[in-house]
C-alpha cells in the first residue's frame, strides 16, 4: 500500500513550526462573564445604510478615512484603514521587512501579534525585555539595532497597562532615524483620557517621517467584531502600505458602520463609554486591593488591569469553573502569578470581586489557636 502523502511537507518550514496566536476565542471557555479579550461589555446598535452588496467596496472608503483623520487631527493622506490593527501590524512587515535579512524588534511582555506576524513571514525577532519599571531598555535597544527595520512599541502596553514614557519614545525614534520604522500601537489610548491628548504621538508625525501609529475601533469604540483599525503615518508610508494591502480589505457593511461610529455623536458615545470603563476600573482596583489572594493590582491606563495573585492558577481555574473567564499571563516574562482582567460593566466587576473574595475567604490560612 502507498504511504499516505503528508501534505505538511509542502508547507513552508516557518509555517510548519509556527505556534499560532492563541486569541481569546481560540482558547475557548464556557462562561457568561468574558473578561479575557479586552472587549467592551455590551453591543452598540447600528443600522446598515449601504445595500449595494452586488458591488465591490472601495479599497479605502473615503468617508471612513476623512472622519478618522478629523478625529485624529490629521490629513486623510496620513490615514490607512485595515481589517483591524492586526492587519496593519502585518502590512508593515510586508512593506518593510525582507525575509532572511531584516529583523523586527519589540519589548516583551507585550502584545503577541508582533512576534506571530514576524514569524509567519520568516522575519527575525529581536526581543528586548522591558526594564523593571516596564519601560523600554533604551541601551539594549541601541545595542540590538543591527538589521532591524521595524520596532513595535505598545503604549499603553498590553498586558501591563502602563503608558510608555514619551521621553523614551523620542529616544527610540532618534535611534531609529534613517534606518527603521517605529510603530507605536495606541490601541488603548482612549482609556487614558486625562493623558490622551499629551500621550498620543499623532502630533509627532511632522517631526518623525519614520513614525507609524496604530489605532483600532475594537476597544473604546466597542466594535471588536467589526474588524476595523487604522494606521496613521506619513503619506509616503501609507502609499507603501497600500501597495501590499488586499484589494478590498473592508466589507461594505464594515465601512458603513465604521463611518457611523466616527460621526461626532459616535465619538461622544465612545468617550462616555471610556469614562464608564475608567470608573469601573477604579472600583475594581480598589475592591481587589483588599483581598488576601491579591498581591498587587498594577496601575492601568487601559480597559484591563494586570493583577498579581498569591496563587494565580487557583484564581484562574476557580473563576473559569464559575464561568468568569480571565486571561492567564503567567508564561509572559516577568509576569509570574499574573492574570489580566478586562474591565466589564459594573455588574460583571461585582461578580468578579465576589468570586475572588469568596475564594480568598476559603483559602484564608487557618490561624493557630493560641495556647491558653
Ligand atoms: C495592543 C493591541 N494592538 C492591536 C490589537 C488588535 O486590534 P484589532 O482588533 O484592531 O485587530 C490588540 C487587540 O487586542 C491589542 O491589544
TrEMBL record:
GO molecular function per UniProt: histidinol-phosphate transaminase activity; pyridoxal phosphate binding
InterPro entries per record: Aminotrans_II_pyridoxalP_BS (IPR001917), Aminotransferase_I/II_large (IPR004839), HisP_aminotrans (IPR005861), PyrdxlP-dep_Trfase (IPR015424), PyrdxlP-dep_Trfase_major (IPR015421), PyrdxlP-dep_Trfase_small (IPR015422)
Keywords in alphabetical order: Amino-acid biosynthesis, Aminotransferase, Histidine biosynthesis, Pyridoxal phosphate, Transferase
Start and end residues of each Aminotransferase class I/classII large domain: 33-356
Positions of modified residues (N6-(pyridoxal phosphate)lysine): 219
GO annotation terms (biological process): L-histidine biosynthetic process
Pathway connected to this protein: Amino-acid biosynthesis; L-histidine biosynthesis; L-histidine from 5-phospho-alpha-D-ribose 1-diphosphate: step 7/9
SUPFAM superfamilies listed in its UniProt record: PLP-dependent transferases (SSF53383)
EC id: 2.6.1.9
Cofactor (UniProt): pyridoxal 5'-phosphate
Catalysed reactions, as listed in the record: L-histidinol phosphate + 2-oxoglutarate = 3-(imidazol-4-yl)-2-oxopropyl phosphate + L-glutamate
Pfam families: Aminotran_1_2 (PF00155)
Subunit structure and binding partners: Homodimer.
Stated name of the protein: Histidinol-phosphate aminotransferase
Amino acid at each position: 500500500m502507498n504511504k499516505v502523502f503528508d501534505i505538511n511537507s509542502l508547507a513552508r518550514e516557518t509555517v510548519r513550526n509556527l505556534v499560532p496566536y492563541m486569541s481569546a476565542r481560540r482558547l475557548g471557555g464556557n462562561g457568561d462573564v468574558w473578561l479575557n479579550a479586552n472587549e467592551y461589555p455590551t453591543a452598540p446598535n447600528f443600522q446598515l445604510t449601504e445595500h449595494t452588496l452586488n458591488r465591490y467596496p472601495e479599497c479605502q472608503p473615503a468617508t471612513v478615512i476623512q472622519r478618522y483623520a478629523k478625529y485624529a487631527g490629521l490629513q486623510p493622506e496620513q490615514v490607512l484603514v485595515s481589517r483591524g490593527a492586526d492587519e496593519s501590524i502585518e502590512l508593515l512587515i510586508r512593506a518593510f521587512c525582507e525575509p532572511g535579512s531584516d529583523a523586527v524588534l519589540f519589548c516583551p511582555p507585550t502584545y503577541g501579534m508582533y512576534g506571530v506576524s514576524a514569524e509567519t513571514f520568516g522575519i527575525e525577532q529581536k526581543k528586548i525585555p522591558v526594564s523593571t519599571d516596564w519601560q523600554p531598555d533604551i541601551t539594549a535597544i541601541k545595542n540590538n539595532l543591527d538589521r532591524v527595520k521595524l520596532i513595535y512599541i505598545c503604549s499603553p502596553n498590553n498586558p501591563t497597562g502602563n503608558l510608555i514614557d514619551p521621553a523614551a519614545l523620542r529616544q527610540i525614534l532618534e535611534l531609529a532615524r534613517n534606518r527603521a520604522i517605529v510603530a507605536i500601537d495606541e490601541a488603548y489610548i482612549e482609556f487614558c483620557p486625562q493623558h490622551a491628548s499629551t500621550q498620543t504621538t499623532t502630533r509627532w508625525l511632522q517631526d518623525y517621517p519614520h513614525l507609524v501609529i496604530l489605532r483600532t475601533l475594537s476597544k473604546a469604540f466597542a466594535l471588536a467584531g467589526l474588524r476595523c483599525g487604522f494606521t496613521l503615518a506619513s503619506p509616503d508610508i501609507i502609499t507603501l502600505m497600500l501597495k501590499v494591502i488586499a484589494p478590498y480589505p473592508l466589507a461594505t457593511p464594515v465601512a458603513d458602520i465604521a463611518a457611523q461610529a466616527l460621526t461626532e455623536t459616535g465619538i461622544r458615545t465612545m468617550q462616555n463609554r471610556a469614562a464608564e470603563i475608567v470608573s469601573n476600573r477604579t472600583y475594581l482596583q480598589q475592591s481587589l486591593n483588599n483581598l488576601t489572594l491579591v498581591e498587587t493590582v498594577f496601575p492601568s491606563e487601559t480597559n484591563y488591569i494586570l493583577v498579581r495573585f498569591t496563587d494565580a492558577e487557583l484564581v484562574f481555574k476557580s473563576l473559569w469553573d464559575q464561568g468568569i473567564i480571565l486571561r492567564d499571563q503567567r508564561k509572559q516574562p516577568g509576569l509570574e502569578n499574573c492574570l489580566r482582567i478586562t474591565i466589564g460593566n459594573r455588574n460583571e466587576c461585582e461578580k468578579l470581586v465576589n468570586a475572588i473574595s469568596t475564594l480568598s475567604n476559603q483559602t484564608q490560612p487557618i490561624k493557630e489557636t493560641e495556647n491558653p
